[in-house]
Amino acid sequence: MKIKKILNNNAALALDDKGNEIVYTGCGLCFQKKIGDEIDEGKIEKTFVMEKPNEQFKQLVSEMPYEQIQVADEIIKYAGDMLNKRLCNNIYITLTDHLGYAIERAKTGTVLRNKLLWEIKNFYKTEYSIGCHALDMIKEKLGVTLPDDEAGFFALHIVNAELDGNMHHTLETSEVISDIVSIVKYTFNTALDENTLSYERFITHLKYFLQRAEKREYYPADNVDMFNMMIKKFPEAYKCAIRIKSYMESKFPEEITDEEMLYLVVHISRITDRK
After folding, report:
1. Which of 55, 97, 243, 268 has minimal CB crowding within 10 Å?
2. What is the CB neighbour count within 10 angstroms for residue 224?
3. Is beta strand 21-25 parallel, antiparallel or unpaired with respect to 5-8?
């Protein structure tokens, strides 16, 4: 593999047999190298294949300190292992870039407050725990201590990569989930036990519920008899689901189906069960 462009002393750009751009990184990978030289495969530590040219990523790799790129890569790998899923490749840009600016802020004593930290802690517990682990890695490997707010920001980048969406959508999703939980609390005039499995399932259901709303792909109404039975058995949960329906239809144009209402009633009845 021959070097097409030297990004810095630790990163090189090359082309594979299909013409895809590949960014190789490794400590001293391009030391005393020039364009057209063969890449020393023994020094390659990470390979990034880009089906479409991405100038932003190449610029990021060329400008950021190599050790920061290494740590960002370790955080992303840890996140993928913890979630047992492949994350959207865009996270290599967004999270790495965020890490660089977070370190710059820390060095100048600037703290960026995360206004959604409570929502992130409660609605994306796994991702937040990954964010906290990321702070430990950054402190250990880079000697920089970041505030808890940054754990929340890292968690949002991970959630965004899970959903393969954009950060605006991820932030909006967090706000909508918070509003729906507030509707449940208001309807039943009670606090919810956030440490129960039922609550965790409800939050997970809401995440995918919002994805379906965004795509206008609500579940079709297939369980009419079950739906009628559940609204009679759990009238308060159904009353709450009606309020959620009204709220959702003010946000998204598609009318919520009875099938979606059925699932809402089931989850609401579980998390508000006082027995």
Report:
1. 55
2. 11
3. unpaired
Which residue in this structure is represented by tokens 């030289």? 37
Q: Which domains does the chain have, with CATH numbers?
A: 5-55 (2.30.24.10), 66-165 (1.10.1790.10), 176-271 (1.10.1790.10)
Which one has a higher pLDDT value, 222 or 118? Answer: 118
CA dist 106 and 270 (Å) reads 43
Please give the angle made by the CA atoms of 140, 144 and 149, to the nearest 5 degrees: 105
88 DSSP 8-state letter: P
User: Phi and psi for 129 in degrees, rounded to 5?
Assistant: -65, -35
DSSP lists the bridge partners of residue 11 as: 8, 25
pLDDT in tens, 84-120: 888 887 888 889 999 999 999 999 888 888 888 888 8
- Provide the CA 216 distance to its chain's centre, in angstroms: 21
